[in-house]
Amino acid sequence: xxEYTLSTGMEVHAELETDSKMFCRCPVEFGAEPNTRxxxxxxxxxxxxxxxxxxxxxxxxKTALALNCQxxxxxxxxxxxxxxxxxxxxxxxxxxGDTNVLGHFGYLEVPTKNGGIKKINIRKVQIExxxxxxxxxxxxxxxxxxxRAGVPLMEIVTDFPPDxxxxxxxxxxxxxxxxxxxxxxxxxGKMEEGSLRCEPNISIRVIGTDKYGxxxxxxNLNSFRSVQHGIEYEYKRQxxxxxxxxxxxxxxxxxxxxxxxxxxxRSKESEEDYKxxxxxxxxxxxxxxxxxxxxxxxxxxxxxxxxxxxxxxxxLNHYDASILVAELSWSTYFDECIKMGGDPKLxxxxxxxxxxxxxxxxxxxxxxxxxxxxxLVELTTLIQKETISGKIGKDIFEISFKNGKMxxxxxxxKGLTQISDxxxxxxxxxxxxxxxxxxxxxxxxxxxxxxxFLVGQVMKQSKGRANPxxxxxxxxxxxxx
Length: 481
Ligand SMILES: [Zn+2]
Prior knowledge:
single chain; 15 helices; elongated
């Protein structure tokens, strides 16, 4: 039996987070009453003229630069002609051509599970407008909501031949790309609301051959999970077709989340069917080197750079570094703590355990929490210097989290400093031994694990303030006497 390998290209559409639409002043807003964010321009009335949204173009250029693309010195808008009810003009304003599109021939590098880096080439990053939305009416029949028509849309397409060879890599790419968009603040990344949409095309071929198979395109994928599962399903479906002597049909297929299956939606039009031509209503866009240089300066440190820095400078592992860069709010908070002198590993541990848990339970973010970076740095430093024990640290964190008091203040008020004075600890130890004389015999007869209980008694008597390391040493010394 032949062995098959998977090839996946990715087409991603990202709605841009601008205030207004691409060619008119209508506001961009998700979830508004249908057809209330519209005007003659985005409804495609004859005689109207589009005026491009400068911010949207800037967002696409920034993304293209962040994705290591070449930027077109001159770029024009094209009309993509097709008939569909959600497209009032009968064409979509888009872009066409290898080097005419705003950004082209770039790449994105993403960390993989095994700690390596996968490079995925990108063919183009272009600008276009979104279409309206067909919806089923509660009273029966269908309606069209044009609130989304004309919303600025960025299209990011990977290169051919495809670099993505597994469903995992497809997910890693999408995760990495979404992070970049969020760091650049150009898209809100909400797949469940459709502001980030991914349409992978999938083909298989016999391992060792270089002829790519017929590809199918997948739609309706609204989570990372559905992207991964959809691709895995499509791979298996295509393999079984070929195994049975049938062939793969070029078509667009939908993903049925409930049934975990793909189903045929429509056969795929080829590119020529759209009869692209330059839009005569719009002037070409020209970008000077100076302008692009200025734009480059506004790009913040990107997730991969942060991921590498956290490992190289702070010695964090793949897992910790990935967690911190996954959300901009996390890495921003972490960076602030480090700037204030916090210990990277300790800060990371606190953020990803107790702190994250408390935020989750109360629906807050690192930025909205009363525990500021200053609080967390102070708390971890108190523990590190053994002024307080780790256990007391947790109690103090809870208090800070509730009322915003500084950890040092709480320690002062409640007298929670750690006891490291050996003479004081010895008294506690003597007391514990006096109350449990039978344990001394057990210890001497070889049951050395009773020491844990005795240490616990001292910790209890000292209300958690005794330094556990010193307690352990003293207790052992006394028992061995
Ligand atoms: Zn409008």
